[in-house]
Amino acid sequence: MATIKDVAKLAQVSPSTVSRILNEDPTLSTSLETKKKVINAAKELKYNKSKKMSKAIFTLGIIQWFSEQQEAKDNYYLKVRRGIEDFCVKNCINVVRTFKSNPNYLEQIEDADGIICIGKFSNEEVEKFMSITKNIVFLDMSFHDYKATTFSLDFEMAVNEALTYLIELGHKEIAFLGGREFLGEENDNVVYEDYRKKAFIKFCEKNEIDYNKYLIEGRYSMESGYQMMNEILEKKQLPTAVFAASDQIAFGAMKAIREHDLNIPEDISLIGFDDLEMTRYTAPALTTLHAPAYEMGQYGVNSLFAASNLAIKTTIKVKLPCHLVVRDSCMAINE
């Protein structure tokens, strides 16, 4: 039977280092590479695993609904993933990452101890994931029931804060540029309910704002934002403000507004959603809602890891708050 000394010899470290790594000593300062060497050596020698060592060699599967190319264009989901992976590095968790666009992607995570799903998935896909393990968390997707633990954004609170800000500036003609997301069922493309749109309509109805003439939906992209804004600008009566459901849509809208020889915010005020890094460098700097994407990843993996260690089976539904970041793309209307 292998001993700590055997593991230490194979990993080329001291026995005390092996003991501290396998027991997750928080005072130990060592590299991730050293931690991996010790864990792999323990696996190879089939070292008798204590409860803490089982925790140390936890394998997490990450399923992303975006392709790798799409993720490179959208920093929001990249931030979510980085939040997860930074936690895994600190806690010596093995990560197996796959994209839904990959062939046979489910085979890559079939031996995972837990799974985190990032994005939007169909009912059929959700059932497949849950057949692999019940230790599962969905990020940026919410269910009407509690079939699994979910972390998503509090869209209603966020939209209310943005629209209240515009009303306080005197805006009553407010456009909504949204996007449709498709779950991709096997025989049909099912549209995922857009909670930003739902919150926008609810707020407008409550505050007697006529939203129908300025509500347009496309895709969550700069190209779609550009097209939707052009459609708005072709109308005889223009809105005084625009709420874009993502920063990417807002970037496209900015280009369309400039091409029509209009100024932001003098002619049209503009608010985005996400608080991507680029919002600080647009001209003018974009007022937007900060979405805690990185924190969502951290909370999600922390919850999954803790539930696994404590054998917790009760699912939870968490909504993370967003907050308005006021910059230069909005101004008060001169009566």
Sequence-ordered SSE layout with sheet pairings:
Blueprint: H1 4-11, H2 15-22, H3 32-44, H4 51-56, E1 59-64, H5 68-73, H6 75-90, E2 94-99, H7 105-108, E3 114-118, H8 123-132, E4 136-139, E5 149-153, H9 155-168, E6 174-179, E7 181-182, E8 191-192, H10 195-206, E9 215-218, H11 222-233, E10 241-244, H12 247-259, E11 269-274, E12 287-290, H13 293-310, E13 317-320, E14 323-325
Parallel strand pairs: 1-2, 1-3, 3-4, 4-5, 5-13, 6-9, 6-10, 10-11, 11-12
Antiparallel strand pairs: 7-8, 12-14
Keywords: DNA-binding, Transcription, Transcription regulation
Domain HTH lacI-type: 2-47
InterPro entries: HTH_LacI (IPR000843), LacI/GalR-like_sensor (IPR046335), Lambda_DNA-bd_dom_sf (IPR010982), Peripla_BP_I (IPR028082)
Which range does the strand content fall in? 15-25%
* Mean pLDDT over all positions: 89
Biggest sheet, in brief?
6 strands, parallel
Question: Considering DSSP H and I runs of 4 or more, what fraction of the residues is helical?
Answer: 40-55%
* Global structural class: alpha/beta
Based on CA atoms alone, the radius of gyration comes out at 24 Å
How many angstroms does the end-to-end distance come to? 84 Å
Give the name of the CATH architecture of the largest domain. 3-Layer(aba) Sandwich
Helix count, DSSP H or I runs of 4 or more residues: 13
Poorly predicted parts: 50-56
* Named CATH topology of the largest domain: Rossmann fold
CATH superfamily of the largest domain: Response regulator
